[in-house]
Amino acid sequence: MFALVTIMQGYYADLYQWGMSLHHEKEFIKDCIQDVFLKLWKIRESVAVVENVKSYLLVTLKTRILKELSKKQFTHFTSLTEEYAFAFEFAEDLKLIDEEFEIYQIKKLNLALNKLPGRQKELIYLRFYQCLSFGQIAEVMAISRQSVYNLFQKSLNSLRRFYDVIT
Amino acid sequence: MKDYNTYTLKNFLEDDGFRDWVQRKGGPEEPFWRSFLLRYPGKKAALRQAERIILAAGHRDPAIDSREIRVEAEALLEQISVHEPGRAVETQEKQEGAHTRGWLPWIMAACIAAFLMTNHFLADKPAPPREASAARSLTSNLVKTRNDTDKPLRILLSDNSEVFLSPSSTLSYPSHFTDSSRTVHLTGEADFSVRKGSTPFMVYAGGVITKVLGTRFVVRAFEKDQNTTIRVRTGTVSVFEKGKSGPLKKAKENSGLIITANQAAVFEKSVRQFTKTLVSDPVRLSKAIDFESKRYDETQLSKILSDLEKAYGISILFDREQFEKCRITATLADENLYQKLEMLCKSIGAVYEIVDGQILILGKGC
């Protein structure tokens, strides 16, 4: 059981961040994370070998949050692919950049990224913030890998619209 | 095989290795990406743009601090114990009835053990703290790495030489060494393990050039320091002053020093002069003499000193005639070289000095 606690500690910040993007309510998200791990403990004997712990946890937490929300708000999320809000604010990483032109470019891109529609933003978030592969993103977003690639292409098109310099 | 010649912005962004490189996570593909633009100069615009997008989708400070996470971990442990009464009892016994706060050391201890296990079983390790990343900027083909963390940073050069860059230090090096030279520039401190190669490896630092073929050594050249020091761990290096006009003046090279294992060269920047000395923590180069179990019984001093010479690769000078009659009974197990010398000297009423990278024993004899 200590291994499980260790896993929780290792991934907590990422999970919390992810949960807060889906629903901005601190205690609610903390409870959901507890539930996810407690459930994992209960089913530990029957759980299949998980290939990627992180994407497994992200998708489990997301399912949990959406389920709890639908109970709470009397709305029904029939599946994970349905529309839900994804609110996350990208903060540009300028620690290592000292060139003014570069800073300007990155800030502009950051604004464009934050304007992306929900699903596209979620994809960019999973790709560059949670650092998942396309296969893992497909798992977390509950869509096919090809759909992920298509959505990614769409995101780049949106970015181009917001930000004309991208070629 | 990926065809990088046709790589577009999208391909870069879809490449896990590229993303990891931009985010400075290291990884096996790092050397490849470091020198990517040398091989595919036409891809510069797309690569830069992809890099910007990744940085623009960056990280903000952690939304939750480690104390809060610990509280959550404790809560999980409690929850589990409730569902598994047997386990809870077992844990409490070990804890001798401590209350909730006492869980903490338990979790911490378990975490260390569990981490060893999980790292084996999990495909994906928990990400290391991201703020501990080092700066890297690409200007032409020169890579500049600055270590802003508080731990040494490992850098693998293209010839497979390994460098541990100390905190607050910067190393500049070509992403790919050419056939004619292996040259790096350092400010601050770094520990080099240089692979043997056909061309000399040269470190420019603090007005000194250190030249080697393959060996381990540490260069310390912080701008604020008065001295530049080079400490050799194994092998031999030559050091010489960096010439005013050209970097490699033959005349200057001649005025340099040769230093061997456990020796150090100190370059005093104000007077531009080298001194040879010994490192502060000489390491044993040969384990042939087993000081741990060896006991010297009425042994001639010269015999013991020659053992030390062999073990540390440092020459020890003394007047053989004067010390001929000295006999020593001792074990030299735990001490470092200097403590060993001190002990020996004390027992024969002598002192030792470090002169020019050698040890000199002075005394009246026995």
Folded structure, characterized:
The complex is a heterodimer of chains A (167) and B (366). Chain A contains seven helices and no strands. By secondary structure, chain A is mostly helical. In chain A, helix 1 (2-22) packs antiparallel against helix 2 (26-42), helix 1 packs across helix 3 and helix 5 packs across helix 7. The model of chain A has no long low-confidence stretch (mean pLDDT 82). Chain B is of the alpha+beta class and 366 residues long. Chain B has four domains: 4-56, no CATH class; 66-121, no CATH class; 136-278, Jelly Rolls; 295-363, Phage tail protein beta-alpha-beta fold, CATH 3.55.50. Chain B is built from eleven helices and 19 strands. Chains A and B meet through helix 1, helix 2, helix 4, helix 5 and helix 7 of A and helix 1, helix 2, helix 5, helix 6 and helix 8 of B.
Summarize the structure.
The complex is a heterodimer of chains A (167) and B (366). By secondary structure, chain A is mainly α.
Provide the descriptors you would attach to this structure in a database record.
heterodimer; A: 167 residues; mainly alpha; Arc Repressor Mutant, subunit A; 2 domains; 67% helix; globular; B: 366 residues; alpha+beta; Jelly Rolls; 14-stranded mixed β-sheet; three-stranded mixed β-sheet; 11 helices; 31% helix; 30% strand; extended
What order do the helices and strands come in, and which of them pair?
The complex is a heterodimer of chains A (167) and B (366).
Chain A (H helix, E strand, L loop, with lengths): L1 H21 L3 H17 L10 H21 L26 H15 L3 H12 L4 H8 L3 H18 L5
Chain B lengths: L8 H6 L1 H7 L7 H5 L1 H4 L4 H13 L9 H18 L1 H11 L7 H19 L13 E5 L2 E6 L5 E4 L5 E4 L3 E6 L7 E12 L7 E5 L2 E5 L3 E6 L5 E8 L1 E6 L8 H5 L2 E4 L2 E6 L4 E6 L16 E6 H12 L3 E2 L9 E5 L5 H12 L1 E6 L2 E6 L3
Parallel strand pairs in B: 6-7, 16-19
Antiparallel strand pairs in B: 1-2, 2-5, 3-4, 4-6, 5-6, 6-9, 7-8, 8-11, 9-10, 10-13, 11-12, 13-14, 15-17, 18-19
